[in-house]
Design goal:
Blueprint lengths: L4 E9 L2 E12 H10 L11 H4 L6
Antiparallel strand pairs: 1-2
């Protein structure tokens, strides 16, 4: 196992918790890039499973 690869990254910012899980291991530097560019979404269309992974139950 390459120590420079990660499957997930978690952090908290502005009173919110975030967690990203990668389908395949990525370089830690790539995970940090995604972490730095994640912002909360106000409204997510429930049909956009590419954004949320699974459909939201309302």
């Amino acid at each position: 196992v390459d120590k420079g690869l990660v499957r997930s990254v978690a952090w908290s910012k502005d009173n919110m918790a975030y967690f990203l899980f990668f389908q395949v291991p990525v370089k830690a530097s790539e995970a940090e890039f995604y972490k730095d560019h994640v912002v909360p979404l106000k409204n997510i269309d429930s049909s956009r499973t590419d954004l949320i992974g699974v459909k939201t139950i309302r």
